[in-house]
Design a protein that fits this description.
Elements lengths: L12 H37 L10 H12 L2 H34 L1 H16 L6 H8 L3 H25 L3 H9 L4 H39 L4 H10 L3 H29 L4 H5 L2
């Protein structure tokens, strides 16, 4: 007969969950560099083995040297600053207007029914096709790039905010109202905390689209910024420098996305998504 009081070595579910979360958080720091090194090795092998022209595809070492040289160039940092400013300014406008309008639309039914067809119609329009129009309206300066970045980032923030506010259980809202809570108290203590995971998801999408919008605006109608620098390198057939600019853009986009992940951990540490994000 088995001893009912025999000790067991099984870890409690909470401990197993913590171990799994720790392992999942550490895994990308090991696998991602390995995959990156593998891709660089394949790139080097392909260029050397097939004798690809440096004008078509430079070797990784040449791209690295071009990027390091770019990091020491004040002119390159000037272009980087212009792109960062256009991205952050456009994202800020999109965040303020998108969150405000999303909350209002989610709380007022007739506004949602009225504006929903217009929101859907404007989302299906290819925003990049509007860049020449924005350049015509706002000129070749920084304003047109901010507008493009804001327009691209606006809709995911708006839709995610509205979805987050609408996803709140009506029973929770009824409990707050039964306790004589004001509309502001309901929003601050219930709607906003519950909608924050959705809003931050919209921010993650929006910040990526904002930098895309800023760079595309610089492609088509700019005299400064990383997009303009990339086109200048293309016109000069400096392929290694083009790849260096692309790497610079990618790192910049990753830093923006990472900053939203940090913001998620700060604002909603209690939510499951905060434990899964970088």
């Amino acid at each position: 007969m088995p001893d009912a009081a025999a000790p067991t070595n099984a870890a409690p579910p909470a401990a197993l969950r913590r171990q799994r979360l720790t392992r999942d958080a550490a895994l990308p720091w090991i696998t991602t560099p390995c995959v990156l090194l593998g891709l660089i090795a394949v790139w080097e092998f392909y260029v050397v083995e097939f004798r690809v022209s440096a004008l078509i595809l430079p070797r990784p070492g040449a791209v690295w040297e071009a990027w390091v040289e770019m990091l020491h160039s004040p002119r390159a940092w000037h272009h980087t600053g212009m792109t960062v400013y256009a991205t952050l300014a456009g994202f800020a406008w999109a965040a303020v207007i998108g969150v405000s309008l999303g909350v209002v639309i989610a709380r007022v039914r007739w506004l949602e029914l009225t504006f929903n067809p217009f929101i859907v119609a404007t989302q299906v329009i290819p925003k990049v096709a509007l860049v020449p129009l924005f350049v015509l309206w706002f000129g070749f300066g920084i304003t047109s790039k901010v507008v493009v970045a804001a327009v691209l980032a606006f809709f995911p923030i708006l839709t995610n905010t509205a979805l987050g506010v609408k996803s709140i259980e009506e029973g929770h809202r009824d409990v707050m109202l039964s306790l004589n809570a004001t509309r502001w108290q309901v929003f601050r203590r219930l709607e906003l905390p519950s909608a924050l995971p959705f809003i931050l998801t919209g921010f993650e999408i929006g910040i990526v689209l904002a930098i895309i919008g800023a760079i595309v605006g610089e492609y088509l109608g700019g005299n400064a910024g990383l997009g303009h620098l990339l086109i200048a390198r293309l016109n000069a057939f400096e392929t290694a420098d083009m790849f260096a600019v692309l790497i610079h853009m990618s790192i910049l986009g990753f830093l923006f996305y990472f900053s939203i992940g940090v913001l998620r951990k700060v604002l909603i540490p209690w939510h499951a998504s905060a434990r899964l994000k970088v």
